[in-house]
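Need the bound structure for N-carbamoyl-L-aspartate, inputs here:
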Amino acid sequence: MDALPHILTAQAFSKEFLESVFARTDEMVARGGKHYRSDALCGKKVFLLFLEPSTRTRESFAAAALALGASVRSLDNPKETMSLKKGETLSETVYTLSRYYDAIVLRQSEAYVAREAALASSVPVINAGDGPNEHPTQAILDLYTVREWHKKIDGLTVLIAGDLMYGRTVHSLVYALSLYKIKKLIFVPHPLLPLPRQVQKYAELHGIPCEETDCFWRAVPEADVIYQTRVQKERLKDEAVAADSAPKIDEHILAVTKKDACILHPLPHGGELARTALEDPRTLCFSAQEDNGLFTRMALLEMIFEQTN
Ligand code: NCD
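Answer from helper R.:
Posting the output first, comments after.
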């Protein structure tokens, strides 16, 4: 399977790969979802090396690995407690972990470093977010959620709003969507945080019509999927880039949103989702997206270990 065993970038995905993860996820959902258990990873040890905060990604990977029978280790404060603190490089850290563990799930704050770390590793490395660059497994769960809601991905108009510059989930999502016949991608960025040129170019080279606008309410009625994101404050050098000027989903936006559209957000959220948006049944971030994070990661881990056994 092309994208395995390392999962570093959504650019390495193929449609066949995504469809096989989705099919495996469907099976796990049918066989109990959260209650699915197998011994596919029995005797395996998975290390979660999270050098940035995380709730959903870290815990869904942990729960997924545990459901498949693996042992899971993760440190609360690895930057302080590992030899990284003494100046050891991430590559050396990952190299060492790969001598003890069977897979490493890695989140850290620098772009492209996951790739470097994977080169040092003798076991699969899964990029769980490399700074502002990518978050490929989030794209898998996002697409699975869209496919579940709309029963298709081809032909949809997808609107992506918020911090498109530093939102790594956005970049991976655009790469993954580029494998489908998307009708149109509409970008509504925070005025100071536009999508990196090369990300849009990637979609265009894959034949996806792209459009950028600052008029959220005018673009929304066209969208089958609205993907909202938070301003990545931790990556901003200029604190003055207020979240307030970001597009926001409130009752006015909801009123012009298609009845059958879905609203996604990778979470955590800030002011960009009003309470009415959180309560709207079309908003899936605290329901389907969270569940699918667990289910797709169970599928992915099982497939990775089939490949490496
Ligand atoms: C995202 C991330 O860490 O990139 N969260 C997640 O993994 N679900 C989005 C964010 O932090 O805004």
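Comments: The chain has a mean pLDDT of 95. The domain at 10-135+293-308 is CATH 3.40.50.1370 (Rossmann fold).
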